[in-house]
Amino acid sequence: MKKIFQFIKFVLLIAVCTAILYGGYYSYNYSDKLIEMINTFWYDRFDSYLIIDDNEKNNYKELLKSGQVQNRDYIDAEFYPYYALLNESQKEVYYDIIEGANEYKQSIRPSRKIQVDDVKNIYYAVLYDHPELFWLNSKYSYEYYHDTNEVIKINLSYTEVINNIEYNRQIFDEAINSIVDVAKTYSLDYEKEKYVHDTLISMITYDEEYKDDQSAFNAMITHRAVCAGYAKSFQIIMTKLGIPTYYITGEAKGDNAWNLILLDDGYYNVDLTWDDQIDRTIYKYYNVNDTMISKDHTRKELSVYLVSAEGSKYINSYSTLGE
After folding, report:
1. DSSP conformational letter for 307
2. Which of 130, 162, 281, 321 is geometrically suited to a Cys-Cys bond with 158, CB 3.0 to 4.6 A?
3. One domain for residues 105 and 201
4. Predicted confidence (pLDDT) per residue in 202-247, tens digit
């Protein structure tokens, strides 16, 4: 009997050692496949989704107005329309990228299965919905399985401000909040919008030298930017005021960016860059509908899927676009 137990112990020892050696070899040579297997097992059996309590959702706009909103609160499509364009798997990876950017990670592994064709839409949905992530660069890369086109890693990149990011975040927030605080003293959304429109135009100078860094940081801190800097700064401030404002990309005698804003009777287009003249602020592209702005502006890429601008109550009477 003793010999039988010794034999069983020997067999078990051999089995354990073999499993360890095989596991080590497999994890070393096929780490991505191993992670994929674990992720697949986990999500197939323990899938969970972000759940927001009804009361929390009802208080969402108040959170925005108080400046307490966190990046995870992208669930409200009224404020984050590009997120709403994504399917469920893409939405989870959208959140993965936000998490990675907030932690300054060099890469993230998607928590859901996505294909190569999904990456651009997800990445740009994050950039367009969340310009407050001003250190996140528009350049990215990814790794994938060539046989299935499944993405296994997305590599993030950052602008130069990442080198002193905590300080840069602090001065950026202070610059944004200084405008938000004054805008809050106005009663009507329209009045807040005009104050922010005029203030940003007065403080920012259009400068082609900044075309490679189109973040809101340059617009708010160096006061020099191209159209993207104007539009992203406006979006961040109006969103913090609880007024849905979107980033729009398109063509207007070349690549251009402007905004959609929701006032009480509908959406309007606002192009701060084109309202910024060398010696004065004009209102030609301030609160105009799609028919008016389509004379020289055309949406492209993801922006074509966003809501139309058909508001009428606040159409700017100074604009000549309707003539």
Report:
1. P
2. 162
3. no
4. 999 988 876 656 899 999 999 999 999 999 999 999 999 999 999 9
Concatenated DSSP letters of 278-300: SS-B--TTEEE-HHHHTTT-EE-
Q: What are the DSSP calls for 131-157, one per residue?
A: TT-TTB-S--EEEE-TTT-BEEEEE--
Asked if residues 299 and 250 have their Cβ atoms less than 8 Å apart, the reply is yes
Q: Indicate yes or no: pTM above 0.85.
A: no
Q: What are phi and psi of 122, to 5 degrees?
A: -65, -50
Contact criterion met (CB below 8 Å) for 243 and 268? no
176-197 CB burial, b ≥16 within 10 A, e <16: beebbeebeeeeebbebbbbbb
Query: Quick one: CA dihedral 250, 252, 257, 262, positive or negative?
Result: negative
DSSP 17-86: HHHHHHHHHHHHHSHHHHHHHHHHHHHHHH-------HHHHHTHHHHHHHT---GGGGG-TTT-HHHHTS
Same domain, 131 and 148: yes
pLDDT tens sequence across 242-288? 999 999 999 998 899 999 999 999 999 999 999 888 778 889 999 99
DSSP 200-230: HHHH-EE-GGGTT---HHIIIIISEE-HHHH
In this structure, the strands spanning 151-155 and 141-144 are antiparallel
- End-to-end Cα, the chain, rounded Å: 103
The answer to whether the CB of 270 falls within 8 A of the CB of 261 is yes
Both structure tokens of 204: 């920012």
Over its C-alpha atoms, the chain yields an Rg (Å, rounded) of: 25
Domain that includes residue 150, residue range: 72-158
β pairing state of 205-206 and 224-225:
parallel
Closest CA to 90 of 302, 314, 322: 302
Residue 313 lies in a domain: no
Task: Give CA–CA dist 5/158, Å, rounded.
Answer: 61
